[in-house]
Design goal:
CATH superfamily of the largest domain: PurM-like, N-terminal domain
Distance between the termini: 33 Å
Helix content: 25-40%
Number of helices: 12
Strand content: 25-35%
Number of domains: 2
Largest sheet: 7 strands, mixed
Order of helices and strands: EEEHHEEHHEHEEEHHEEHHEEHHEHEEE
Shape: globular
Number of strands: 17
Strand order of the largest sheet: 12-14-9-15-13-16-17
CATH architecture of the largest domain: 2-Layer Sandwich
CATH class of the largest domain: Alpha Beta
Length: 428
C-alpha cells in the first residue's frame, strides 16, 4: 500500500492519494468544494452497493412473473386457482438500519427506536406492494434473527408490539393487514446484533392491478419523504431504509468503532468505519423541531399506504405508473422505462438530513441522488391534468407533493436530473 501528498505551485490545493498495487482505493482533492472523495470505493469497501449489480446478475434468469413491468412480481393465483386473480409475495428487511438502532439504544437506553425498525421493515414490503394496487387483505409474517447475548427480550417485545400498532393504525385508514405470526431465532453465530425482516402475501383481482406503462407526455408528481404527515408522531428526516451503511459510517464519529465493535463487519478497513464527526446525541434543529443526529437518521420509513388507498379510489384509471424510490434513489424508475426518458427539473430542495450526510461524507451530488431518495420516495406518473388531484390527496395527509418533471420519448431509457447543483444523466 502506498500513500502520499502532491501540491501545485503556490500551494493552492493538495491532492491526497492512497492506492494499492492492484486496486485503486481513494483520491481526495482538498481545496475544491465541488470535488469529493471517491465514495463509491468506500461503499465497496464496506460491502455494499447502490446498484446491486451482482445481485441483479444472479437473478436475471429468473421468471419475472405475469407482468414484468409491474413494481412487484405478480404470480398466477396459485393459492386460489382462479385465472381472474393473482398472488403477490414480497420479502424485505430493515437492512443495516438495525445496527444504527443498536448504537442509539446502547448509548441512550431508548427502546423506542426499535419500534421504528419494525415500521422500516414492514413499509419496505407493503409500500412496494402498494405500487401495484395491493392495499387489502395482506398477510404479514416476521423473521427476526438475533444475537441473544446482545439483544434482550424487551427489544423483541418492542418490535412485536410496534408491528401490532402499525397494523392497527393502517386499519383505521382502510388498509387491511393480518398478522400471521413469524419466527424469532437466536443465531448469534451469523448475526452480530439483530436482523429484522418481514414477508407479505396477498391475493387480488388482476383487473385491479397497476402495471407500469409510463408514457411520453406523462407528468411526474412526487410525494415528500420528509416533514410530518398527519399520521406521524414526529418530524421525519426522510431517510427511509436505504443508504444506511453510508449514512451511519460517514456521519458518526470513529469513537463508536472501539465502543461497539459488534456494530460493524470487522473485515471493513478501519479508515472507512465511523469516519464522520458527529455523535448520536448531538442536537440538530430544523425549523421549530429539535432532535438528535441519531434520531433524525433513524426516522421511521414513511408509509404512503393511506395516500395510495385514496389514489386508487379516485385516480386508478388515470395513473400510468407508481414508483417507490427505494434502492437506487432518484434513478429507481429506470427499471420500468421503455422508449422514454424521465426529466426531473423541479425536485424538492434536499432536506437537512441529506445535506448533513453529503457534508460529512464528501459524496458528489450525482451519487447522492443515486443512493438516497433526496426528498421524495413516491412518484406518480399520469397525465398532467390530473397532477393537482394527486397533490391535493397528499395534502390531505399533510404530505408535501409537487410536479417534479415530465416524461419524453427517447431511444434509450434514461433519467435526467436538472438541479441547482448540476445536471445529471443516468442510463443504467
Amino acid at each position: 500500500m502506498f500513500s502520499g501528498t502532491s501540491s501545485c505551485t503556490g500551494g493552492k490545493y493538495r491532492i491526497d492519494w492512497l492506492f494499492s498495487i492492484n486496486n485503486f482505493v481513494k483520491v481526495e482533492l482538498i481545496g475544491f468544494p465541488y470535488l469529493c472523495t471517491m465514495s463509491t470505493y468506500k461503499y465497496d469497501q464496506r460491502g455494499v452497493s447502490a446498484s446491486k449489480a451482482e445481485v441483479h446478475a444472479a437473478i436475471q434468469g429468473l421468471d419475472k412473473g405475469l407482468f414484468p413491468n409491474a413494481f412487484c412480481k405478480i404470480l398466477p393465483d396459485v393459492a386460489g386457482g382462479d385465472p381472474g386473480f393473482c398472488n403477490i409475495m414480497h420479502a424485505d428487511t430493515a437492512g443495516t438500519k438495525t445496527s444504527l438502532a443498536y448504537l442509539y439504544w446502547r448509548e441512550t437506553g431508548d427502546l423506542s427506536v426499535w419500534a421504528g425498525i419494525a415500521q422500516d421493515a414492514i413499509v419496505m414490503n407493503l409500500d412496494d406492494m402498494g405500487c401495484v394496487g395491493c392495499t387489502q387483505d395482506i398477510l404479514l409474517s416476521s423473521t427476526i434473527g438475533r444475537n441473544k447475548h446482545l439483544i434482550p427480550g424487551d427489544v423483541i417485545k418492542t418490535i412485536i408490539d410496534a408491528t401490532v400498532n402499525f397494523v392497527s393504525a393502517m386499519q383505521s385508514f382502510g388498509v387491511s393487514i393480518h398478522l400471521a405470526g413469524g419466527e424469532t431465532a437466536d443465531v448469534g453465530d451469523i448475526v452480530r446484533t439483530i436482523d429484522v425482516g418481514y414477508t407479505a402475501f396477498a391475493r387480488m383481482r388482476r383487473q385491479d392491478l397497476l402495471v407500469n406503462h409510463i408514457q411520453p407526455g406523462d407528468a411526474v408528481v412526487a410525494l415528500a419523504s420528509f416533514g410530518k404527515a398527519s399520521y406521524e408522531s414526529d418530524y421525519n428526516g426522510g431517510m427511509g431504509s436505504n443508504g444506511l451503511t453510508s449514512a451511519r459510517h460517514d456521519v458518526l464519529d470513529h469513537a463508536y468503532a472501539a465502543l461497539y465493535p459488534e456494530s460493524f463487519n470487522p473485515a471493513v478497513p478501519e479508515e472507512v468505519v465511523y469516519s464522520g464527526s458527529r455523535k448520536l446525541t448531538d442536537t440538530i434543529t430544523i425549523g421549530n423541531y429539535t432532535t438528535t443526529v441519531g434520531k433524525l437518521i433513524l426516522s421511521p420509513t414513511r408509509t404512503y399506504l393511506p395516500v395510495l388507498q385514496l389514489l386508487f379510489g379516485q385516480l386508478r384509471s388515470q395513473m400510468h405508473g407508481l414508483i417507490h424510490c427505494t434502492g437506487g434513489g432518484q434513478t429507481k424508475v429506470l427499471k420500468f422505462l421503455e422508449g422514454c426518458r424521465v426529466v426531473k427539473n423541479n425536485l424538492f430542495d434536499p432536506p437537512p438530513l441529506f445535506e448533513l450526510i453529503r457534508q460529512e461524507s464528501g459524496t458528489g451530488w450525482k451519487e447522492m441522488y443515486q443512493v438516497f431518495n433526496m426528498g421524495h420516495r413516491l412518484e406518480v406518473y399520469l397525465p398532467q391534468e390530473y397532477a393537482q388531484a394527486v397533490i391535493d390527496i397528499a395534502a390531505h395527509f399533510n404530505i408535501d407533493a409537487r410536479l417534479v418533471g415530465y416524461v419524453e420519448q427517447a431511444d434509450v431509457p434514461a433519467v435526467r436530473l436538472e438541479t441547482p447543483d448540476g445536471i445529471f444523466e443516468y442510463t443504467e
